[in-house]
Each structure stands twice: as structure tokens, then as C-alpha cells.
């Protein structure tokens, strides 16, 4: 997994120096961008993983589901998380590779090529950044915490809900950040750089490695309502654990606008 993520990262770095030459297309909508760099990176990851474990299934952002006869084992891959950042010359993007066993994420790798940061986690073996053990933060109150989130762009739903989330949270926290790359945000929660991260419209490949990174670093991963996490359900909230209940309370409150006074 590490070899595959780093090999894809090296190819992406070469393409990062050729941004003006890349052909850019759209997928689901005009702001959902994809380039030949995404497709090449997925091809690299898929080839290396297939060579190592040819029987495992494969789910990739660009190529969809495919793979071998062992459906209980599945690679989940986002070859370039933060494509818009990449295409606009922003260094906040990464490669995601996760392994699911019978639906449970058991290993994850997030590689951030421009910073040369390699985040690795395996079930029961901790979370690591460039070979050093990492842990979630110990901040225990919202007022001392810095949160990260995904802001819904033009093609995504829930803009009114997000506006209510900001109204509820900005007065109660030390700061809210948006990097534009779920892979980084979840890895940074694991490393204690952020205290929590949430987003309501994601895919499994966006969040899969981050789930086990956070959990193995001592944090918590749930849905945005606080229910058990299903990476296929399209939303996630991860935190250091200490502020999780308070954050979930605010996120649930944002689902319902206040009734006007009579």
C-alpha cells in the first residue's frame, strides 16, 4: 500500500509541474474536475496492488468497482484527493489507499507528496507519520479547539445546513478551517493538528484511510449524527474523542432551522 501510494505520488508530482498542459474534464458537474493525472495515478496504484494481491477487489474513484474473486477483501482508492487544489497549484492534495476486510477498514495510507508526509495505520498497530507514532490532540472543550470541515461547493447539497452549522459553531470554537482535501483533514486530526473534522457529502474513497488513522491515533469516527460509521453512507465526523459529543450535538441541531418566534 505504501509503495503504491508513493509511486502514484511521484507521478503526480511530475504532473504538478505541468499544470498548464493537463487536459481537464468534468464528472458529475461543472465543478467536479478530473484530469489525466487522476487517471494515471489510479492506474499506478491499481497495477501495484493487483500485483501484490491479485484476488482482492478494487474500488477506485476514477474506475469504479472491479477486481478479483475475493469480495471479502477490497482496496479502496482515491488516487488524487484534492483534485481542484492540485489543478489550481495548491499543494494540499494527497493519495488515499485503504484496505477493507468484510466491510471494515483494517489498514490505510495517506501520502501527501508536496510535503512528503506519509500517514500509515493498521488495525491494532497504531498510526504513524513518516515512521513516528502520532496521537490525536488532548483538547477537551470546543472553545479551545480548531475544527476542519468540507464546505459544499456548487454541485453539492446541504448549503443551508452548512450555513446553520457555521452560525452555531463559529462563536464556540478557536477556529474552523477548510483545506479542500478530506485526506489531509482526517490525517491531520490523527496527528493532533486539528481537533475534529466533518463533512456531509463524501465518498468511501475520500474517507476510508482517515477512519483508521484517526481510530488508531486514539480518536473517534462516526457519522455526522453520531451513529456508527458506514463509509458508504456519504458522511463522516472524526475527532479526538473529547469534543465529539459536543460537536455532534451542534451538527444535529443544524439539521433543523429554528421556528420563527410568534
Automatic annotation (TrEMBL):
InterPro entries: IMPase (IPR033942), Inositol_monophosphatase-like (IPR000760), Inositol_monophosphatase_SuhB (IPR022337). One of its GO terms (biological process) is signal transduction. Its cofactor is Mg(2+). Keywords: Hydrolase, Magnesium, Metal-binding, Transcription, Transcription antitermination, Transcription regulation. The keyword Transcription regulation applies. Its EC number is 3.1.3.25. Coiled coil: none annotated. Mg(2+) binds at residues 61, 78, 80-81, 206. It catalyses: a myo-inositol phosphate + H2O = myo-inositol + phosphate. One of its GO terms (molecular function) is metal ion binding. SUPFAM superfamilies: Carbohydrate phosphatase. Belongs to the inositol monophosphatase superfamily. PANTHER family: INOSITOL MONOPHOSPHATASE (PTHR20854), INOSITOL-1-MONOPHOSPHATASE-RELATED (PTHR20854:SF4). This is Inositol-1-monophosphatase. It comes from Luteimonas marina. The lineage of its organism: Bacteria, Pseudomonadati, Pseudomonadota, Gammaproteobacteria, Lysobacterales.
Amino acid at each position: 500500500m505504501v509503495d503504491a501510494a508513493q509511486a502514484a505520488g511521484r507521478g503526480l508530482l511530475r504532473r504538478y509541474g505541468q499544470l498548464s498542459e493537463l487536459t481537464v474534464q468534468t464528472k458529475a458537474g461543472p465543478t467536479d474536475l478530473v484530469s489525466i493525472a487522476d487517471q494515471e495515478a489510479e492506474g499506478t496504484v491499481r497495477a501495484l496492488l493487483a500485483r501484490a494481491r491479485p484476488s482482492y477487489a478494487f474500488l477506485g474513484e476514477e474506475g469504479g468497482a472491479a477486481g478479483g474473486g475475493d469480495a471479502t477483501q477490497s482496496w479502496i482508492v482515491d488516487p488524487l484527493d484534492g483534485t481542484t487544489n492540485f489543478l489550481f497549484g495548491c499543494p494540499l492534495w494527497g493519495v488515499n489507499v485503504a484496505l477493507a476486510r468484510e466491510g471494515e477498514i483494517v489498514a490505510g495510507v495517506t501520502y501527501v507528496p508536496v510535503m512528503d508526509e506519509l500517514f500509515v495505520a493498521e488495525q491494532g498497530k497504531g498510526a504513524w507519520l513518516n515512521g513516528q507514532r502520532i496521537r490525536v490532540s488532548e483538547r477537551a472543550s470546543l472553545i479551545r479547539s480548531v475544527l476542519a470541515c468540507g464546505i459544499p461547493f456548487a454541485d453539492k447539497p446541504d448549503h443551508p445546513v452548512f450555513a446553520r452549522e457555521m452560525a452555531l459553531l463559529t462563536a464556540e470554537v478557536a477556529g474552523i478551517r477548510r483545506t479542500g482535501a478530506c485526506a489531509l483533514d482526517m490525517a491531520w486530526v490523527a496527528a493532533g493538528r486539528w481537533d475534529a473534522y466533518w463533512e456531509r457529502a463524501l465518498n468511501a474513497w475520500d474517507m476510508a484511510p482517515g477512519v483508521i488513522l484517526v481510530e488508531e491515533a486514539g480518536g473517534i469516527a462516526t457519522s455526522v449524527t453520531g451513529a456508527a460509521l458506514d463509509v458508504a453512507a456519504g458522511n463522516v465526523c472524526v475527532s479526538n474523542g473529547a469534543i465529539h459529543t459536543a460537536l455532534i450535538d451542534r451538527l444535529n441541531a443544524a439539521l433543523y432551522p429554528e421556528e420563527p418566534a410568534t
